[in-house]
Amino acid sequence: MRIFITFSILFACLTSIKGQRVIQPKLVEIDWKGILYKNEWSVDFRLHENGASFSYNSGKIKSYYQTNYYQVELGYMKDPREKTQTKISSSGRSGSFSYGKINNVINIRVGVGRKRYLSEKEKRKGLAVGYTYEIGPSIVLLKPYYLNLFERQDGTVVLVEERFSEENRDRFLDLNTISGKTSFFKGFDELSVRAGLQGKLGAHFAMGAFDKYVKAFETGFMFDLFPTKIPILVETDQVSNKQYFVRVYLNLQFGTRSN
Q1: Distance between CA 12 and CA 7 in Å, rounded?
Q2: What's the distance, Cα to Cα, between the start and end of the chain in Å?
Q3: Which of 19, 26, 176, 241 is the most buried (most CB within 10 A)?
Q4: What is the pLDDT of residues 196-225, one digit of tens each?
């Protein structure tokens, strides 16, 4: 009787185990699209055909697809027709200068822009492709370009520091008179200001667009437009200064996102 009861209990247990269903946990796929961060701060390192610049961006992330931002940019701009000359004196000293240059151009750009993605990205990683556009004021600081010029005074040849003027035009453009350029800091107390309009349109490529850290690069076109010509070079029959500048740029962007 005891053996019968034991076998009955074992049979009941085996039947119960066999009838149980094994439930496997279901993997939940998380869709990371959406507003993970609200704010974005970044810095840009931009190279273009006529110079380079550094900028700071402050943005508001409206959605995965769109970020509105403000930008402040500081850079320098050259004329592509500038030609650097090197002069070696009788003592063996060499001096370099840009022939015909009359002003260094420091450019301050302030803009409001928008960044928008066109493509889906693969989860948190991968490359997101989009575009950016920006517009705002462009302020140019013109710093006079000084040269060391040979000048005869009381029968002695001396070096004098001079900026361009119509009175010294012939001497300023005479290679035999030029020794080289002066210190870059010469002329900062004589700055003049010009104001105009600037804008950018570029293709934007972001790596890890949902990450905490901003890592992106851009390429596109930028322009500066002014109501009058920007005097960079001495004007001649062959050279005329411009009031607009259109060029291709390449930009690297690094920063962080937060809530």
Answers
A1: 9
A2: 74
A3: 241
A4: 999 999 999 998 766 888 999 999 999 999
Domain boundaries defined on the chain: 34-258
Euclidean distance between CA atoms 53 and 135, whole angstroms: 16
Provide the whole-model pTM.
0.79
| Strand segments (E) across the chain | 39-48, 51-63, 66-77, 83-88, 94-99, 103-117, 127-144, 147-153, 156-162, 178-181, 192-207, 213-225, 244-258
C-beta of residue 64 within 8 angstroms of C-beta of residue 89:
no
**Is residue 13 helix, strand or coil?**
helix
CA angle 226, 232, 238 (to 5 degrees): 105
pLDDT digits (tens, 9 = 90+) for 40-59: 999 999 999 889 999 999 99
Closest by CA to 204, choosing from 94, 80, 40, is: 40
Q: Which of 143, 119, 146, 141 is nearest to 130 (CA)?
A: 119
Distance, in Å, from the CA atom of 56 to the CA atom of 74, rounded to the nearest integer, reads 9
In the β-sheet with 178-181, what is the strand arrangement from edge to edge? 156-162, 147-153, 178-181
Give 46's strand partners: 53, 251
Task: Choose between 195 and 159: higher pLDDT.
Answer: 195
**Nearest Cα to Cα of residue 157 among 215, 89, 86:** 89
Per CATH, the number for 34-258 is 2.40.160.20
Q: How many CB atoms lie within 10 A of CB 9?
A: 10
